[in-house]
Amino acid sequence: MVKFIIRRLGFMLLTMFIVSIAIFAISEIAPGNIARNILGPFATPEQEASFLAQLGLDQPLHIRYITWLVGSDWRAERLIGMPLRRIKKPDTEFYEWWAVEPDGTLVRWKLDGEDLIALRLQPDGTVQESLDNERWQTDEAGISTFWGVDTHNRAVMWEKGGGQTYWMRAKAAGWWVEQPGGAREYIPLQKGLLRGDPGESVKTGRPVGDALLRRLQNSILLAAIAFVIVMPLALVLGLLAGLNEGKALDRILSVGGLATTATPNFATGIFLILIFAVWLKWLPGATVFASERAAFENPKMLILPVMTLTLIELGYVLRITRASMVEVMNASYIRTAFLKGLPYWRIVFKHAIRNALMAPITVIMLHVNWLMGGIVVVEAIFGFPGLGRYLLDAALYKDVFAIEAGAMVMVMLAVGTQLVADIIYTFLNPRIRYA
Amino acid sequence: MRVDFEQITDMDYRIKTPILKVENLAISYETRKGDVPAVRDVSFEIRRGETHGIVGESGCGKSTVAFSIVNFLGRNGRIVGGSILFQGQELRGRGEEELRRLRGDQIAMVYQDPMSALNPSLRIGDQLSEVLIVHRNLSKKAAYEKCIDMLKRVYMPDPEAVMLRYPHQLSGGQQQRVVIAMALLNNPALLIMDEPTTALDVTVEAAVLDLIDELRREFDTAIMYISHNLGVIARVSDLVGVMYAGEMVERAAVEEVFLNPLHPYTQGLMRCVPKLGLSKESSYLYPIRGRVPSPAELPPGCIFEPRCDYARPQCQQAHPELREVAPGHFARCHFAEEIAAQKWQPPQDLIPDLAALAARKPEVAEPILRLQQVKTYYEQERKSLASLLGLGQARYVKAVDDVSLEVPRGCTLGVVGESGCGKSTLAKTIVGLEPLTDGRVEFMGFDISVPVSKRDLSLIKELQMVFQNPDSTMNPSFSVGYQIGRPLRRFRGVPRHQVRDEVIRLLEAVKLDASYYDRLPRQLSGGEKQRVGIARAFAARPNLVLCDEPVSSLDVSVQAAVLNLLLEIQQKYGTTMLFIAHDLSVVRFFSDFVAVMYLGKICEIGPAEAIYAPPYHPYTEALLSAVPIPDPSADQKRIRLSGTVPSALHPPSGCRFHTRCPRKIGEICEREIPPCQHVTAEHRIYCHIPLEELRRIEPVVTVK
Amino acid sequence: MAVSEKVMPSISARPSFWLRLRDALAPLLASKVALVGLALVLFWVLVAIFAPFLTPYSPREQDADAMNLGPSAGHPLGTDHLGRDLWSRLVYGSRLILVLAPLSVLCSLAVGTTLGLLAGYFGGLIDEVVMRLLDAMMAFPAVLLYLIIIAAVGASATNVVIAITIAGAPGIARLVRSLTMDIRTRDYIAAAQLRGESPFYIMWVEILPNARGPIIVDAMLRVGYAVFAIGTLGFLGLGLPPPAPDWGSMVCAGRRYIWSNPWAVLWPSLAISSLVVGLNLFADGLREETMRYQ
Questions:
Q1: Cα angle vertex C177, ends C176, C178, to 5°?
Q2: In the sheet where A95-100 sits, what is the strand order?
Q3: Which residue is closest to C212 within chain B, CA to CA?
Q4: Which residues in chain B touch residue A355, judged by CB atoms under 8 angstroms apart?
Q5: Which residues have CB under 8 Å from B620's CB, separation 6+?
Q6: Closest approach of chain A CAs to the CA of C152, in angstroms?
Q7: Which chain A residue has its CA at the smallest distance from B128's CA?
Q8: C18 in a domain, yes or no?
Q9: Do the chains contact at A342 and B100, CB–CB below 8 Å?
Q10: CB-based burial of residue C51 (10 Å sphere; 0-12 exposed, 13-18 middle, 19+ buried)?
Q11: Pairing label, strands B77-86, B89-90
């Protein structure tokens, strides 16, 4: 059985690898699109080129994939010749990259005309500026260059007197402006997805990782409540329907289950809002997260989202369980049990249920994909600040790095649950356990 | 109803009231088209210590009768008439709770497929002991002990360990022992066995049948034994009831039914089955014409009338009753006495072309097919991650291992062996559906050691196959005509505009007519599908046809017709055949030469008559002693193999048969691959035992 | 020795078209659930066909004087926030969805069937590679896949079809693969191989026709999913760009005015629900009936 689980784990890793390539390929195969998506249709080719260079999107595909997956700092360290460190800026959610001098001082640079200025972080948190021109390195052609870390978390190769300009996003102006003091090459510094740093949002400039984590917690809360309600209810109803195959109870539950599952989840949500919020005015029609703990302070606003999710999932699980129960009750070994003269309920509980639950567990866990789609929609309907809406917003804004990271997390969750399902299945099924 | 007790041996200790008495039982199934009478007017009784066999072809209602006794007919079946008396008490109309108390306690049942009869996710011990816990209120511990005792009584090796296992960890024979033990736990008065050995191999079947016989004596249980296999019924039964299309047509003591059948259907059945030792030169099979009527469209008079050679106008009008024709011998026929008095003459259309048959024996010609050290190994499906990346050691299933043989032109080589012996793989290797691992296959002088996709079309044409399963032999989406015509078009045997005529000619050759041309496979019966399969195989006039169990899924009466057809066509075209089957009687009947296979190797090969007489390979001997013979008077030596067939993944060293061989002579069998000993030029035995010793073995079967 | 199983009282060799149609429809007519489903689907199909005769307004005609109105004589279902008639938008929207959904299912059928046949028939390395790729595709929640694809290539009718094709093909491929692997072991396939038929002939002529039953039922369910997906994309703002009368987009646009004009979200939600539920009931009823009498 250990072998079986290891094998599944191997497949899962392989799957995740292919998935990461797929996500990366779909999102970044055409970086020009990304630039136009962000900059709008009126950007000049120069602006676009500068934008791509600053985001590292001008580099070849495989380098970008490696950077995205395992980071770029180790590559930059070799060019700079100093170790690099990422620290969290106090009292903000932003991170900063610094180079570490041999004595442990953190340093980065900026270009002022032809002068290289070192910025050293002092223990009290202030930054001390000083001229640092001796770091220029001059080659045979007489061109002086320097690899260092700039104030925008990039490894940069500056060229002395290059006179280049660059386009940078001026937050105040809300637009991109041309500035002097450009650099010849950029490597945006990043620890990479596998090391917990999927990059910064193009839209907000904030690190994607932390935002994702917060959103994920919210989504898990929502999904967990729905799960706790759906599972027992659906399994019990499904078993009952299966035991009463063909009778009225079964017909009602099956057709009802089919109808609720088939109804698009946004329609379900809209119906619930119309009924409970617009007409009856019993419940809030949207979720407003004023604080981190809003869900616990005002649990009422979770009712409709949870109800929507429940309705979506209930029918599906119910029908799978029912089908499985029907199949098991018609199996030869159940006939054996009847012919052994066992009482009906002993047959149901001892012989049927265990076998009947085996199929639903795998199928339900596979269905987690469906549930995630549901979560995206439900979060969109109710404005619930979860992972789904984060992804949706990212998709609407075409915020590539946020989409990539969010998608990876979602797929990882989906694949992870399937692994859990496999493990549960092996415990339930002696044929695999004692293979 | 009176049974002549003198006729039945050792009656003395039997109590004379029947355990089970079924009278005029009628059962109907509800379908969309209205009620269908599945069983009508069935009466029989079973006494303590007596085994009552019920025999009939598929769909005759035997299982329905069995399930009706415990009132387990499913949702749409119900008893519509008659009575079921169990120990003098009427079971019909009893409440569910009362019946439940009887089931598993007083009445127990054993059914066909033991694997699906056991719950896959419960331990054997739990499944056994709950019978005692529910019916006898025993404590779990006491129940476990009783179960272990019972497992010992059914000769289950290592019963304590078996109690803790799951069904999938046991072999088929062991599972069936568990099911039998489960049925016997409460010492039931009545044991119903529905085809309990059908899914098992002959050697395992023989052991299970021995066990059933022994337990019947020991427990003095009344047994109702249902089977389609006349041989099995002849072996286990005291009394036999023959069922046909939902009615019992004949009932008598076993010797009476087999040696002196009174009903034309029973007589027909007996003439359909090849007896062990009979060959096509010395005998002929007479099939029953027509097919079993569907229960929805029964003939008004005698149900057998449309197929009966003796049918008269009266048979069409009056439905005969089951009546006592001779003492203790019941038959449902208006003219049973008359028929019994006259000697049966095959009707004109059944008489074989004896001249052709006599001229059949071919001169031993040059071999058309020659196999030299053929090996077919399957790579074990590897599922570890390492192997996915191409690491790790490959493991092989040695399905066919070092087989050499020759088939002379125009002859038939039969290949026999139990399931998993590699006989089907051998056939697939020859036709090129399985890649050859090593060795050489030569056909008409050409090397055909390559897969079929790499063979020349003209060679492909000469090598065709008839398949086992009538339901999968034809593509359900295309008409009969298209499917027979396809090889004609493909091999360009006839000009395009003549294909249709040629197909119709072929249909007629397999005794179907032109109206079948446009039919779809689902409109055909099993036998008809098999005929079309034969027509398709012979369409391009191949030189060699491989028949892989062509009759094993057919009912006996249809089986005889298909065998005859194959013989006739082979005769007509002078085709060479390789005939694979597990039924030794059929192989003996059909083949000129026979090869016996065990675990991928040939143990013995030679002319058919030589294989079935000493000297035998010990495995051949064991097989012959296990074959159920439809003749209660036949005398058969009792040789039972121990253990199960080893896995072909790790075949035993030396002689593959040494782990089960009752004649193992010592370490040499484990160490060395047995030598080839020539009895005659054509008859080879692969065994360490010296030929002189093998020659001294007594014949296994003697028919009186 | 002319013995044969006697020819049964003649089953007419080639049943007439109407008889065969009746046979094909029999299971359907037996299931009330399937009939209800069929009625719902037929309703929308007829609406789509006769769209111009069912409404006097164009779906894009704006009326600044009649914004966010409830149902009235002039506008039976009311108007949206731009004063467009909701009924005519629904009517023309049905055309859109009833073309796009089957089209995307056909595309995924083409892709999925080919992959499934190849993987199932050849097995081995081809199967292994195809299956790993499909596993990866199926690890994506479908909505997520739509999000990434549409975010990368932008929203348009073609891209919606492409996204649904990509999301649907792996499921079909898996189904076809398992059917192929089952059918491949049948004797008639061996017989075809023994005629030296090409793999292409065996896959498309011998195997595929026998897999059609489950594939058709699955495709029907998939049309349901496709409608569902197109609606969801529209609702999320990733569907057909305005002013197309896409049902999902109508809900999306109307959502902002839900408190003042609930009708504008109610009708399209109802429309899409009835169509998807109808398709599902129909497919499910059909499956139940065909399975019961196999």
A1: 95
A2: A84-88, A95-100, A106-112, A115-121, A127-131
A3: B477
A4: 119-121
A5: B596, B603, B604, B611
A6: 5
A7: A340
A8: no
A9: yes
A10: middle
A11: antiparallel
Residue that the structure tokens 């109804």 belong to: A263
Cα separation, B667 vs A233, in Å, equals 65
Give the minimum alpha-carbon distance from B414 to chain C in angstroms, rounded to a whole number: 20
Chain B contact probe: residue of A243, A247, A333 with most B CBs at under 10 A: A333
* Chain B residue numbers touching C4 (CB-CB < 8 A): 289, 511-512, 561
Which of B72, B111, B134 minimises the CB distance to A342? B134
Residues A297-333 pLDDT 10s: 677 788 888 889 888 888 888 988 998 999 898 888 9
Task: Flag whether C52 is in a domain.
Answer: no
Q: Which of C141, C150, C262 lies at the smallest CB-CB distance from A274? A: C262
- The answer to whether the Cβ–Cβ distance between C142 and A258 falls below 8 Å is no
Given this model, what pLDDT does residue A432 score?
67
Convert the pLDDT of each residue in C165-188 to its tens digit. Answer: 998 999 999 999 999 999 998 999
Contact: B457, C196; criterion CB under 8 Å: yes
Is C53 part of any domain?
no
- The answer to whether B493 touches B540, Cβ cutoff 8 Å, is yes
Which residues have CB under 8 Å from C89's CB, separation 6+?
A: C59, C80, C245, C250, C268
B525 close to B291: Cβ distance less than 8 angstroms: yes
Q: Is A414 on the interface with C (CB under 8 A)?
A: yes
Chains adjacent to A (≥3 CB pairs closer than 8 angstroms): B, C
**C218 lies in some domain:** yes
Give the model's confidence band at C290: pLDDT under 50 very low, under 70 low, under 90 confident, else very high: low
Q: Specify the pLDDT at position B72.
A: 83
ipTM for the assembly:
0.83
A209-433 CATH? 1.10.3720.10
Look up the CATH number of the domain holding residue C192.
1.10.3720.10
What is the pTM assigned to this prediction?
A: 0.84
Residues B255-299: tens digit of each pLDDT: 989 988 999 999 988 888 887 777 777 777 888 887 788 877 888
Q: How far is B342 from chain C (nearest CA, A)?
A: 22
Q: Where in chain A is the domain with CATH 1.10.3720.10?
A: 209-433
**Contact list, A337 vs chain B (CB under 8 Å):** 119
Domain count within chain C: 1
Contact in structure between B249 and B332 (CB atoms under 8 Å): yes
- Digit-coded pLDDT (tens) for C16-63: 666 666 766 666 666 778 888 889 999 999 988 887 887 777 777 777
CA distance C93 to C97: 6
Which CA distances in Å does A74 have to A52, A82, A98, B28, B617? 21, 10, 13, 81, 74
Which one of C41, C133, C250, C269 would you mutate to disrupt binding with A, by most A Cβ within 10 Å of its Cβ?
C269
- Contact residues for B12 (Cβ-Cβ < 8 A; gap 6+): none
> pLDDT digit string (tens) for A58-83?
788 888 888 888 888 888 888 888 88
* Contact between residue C220 and residue C286 where contact means Cβ atoms under 8 Å apart: yes
Neighbours of chain B (3+ CB pairs under 8 A): A, C
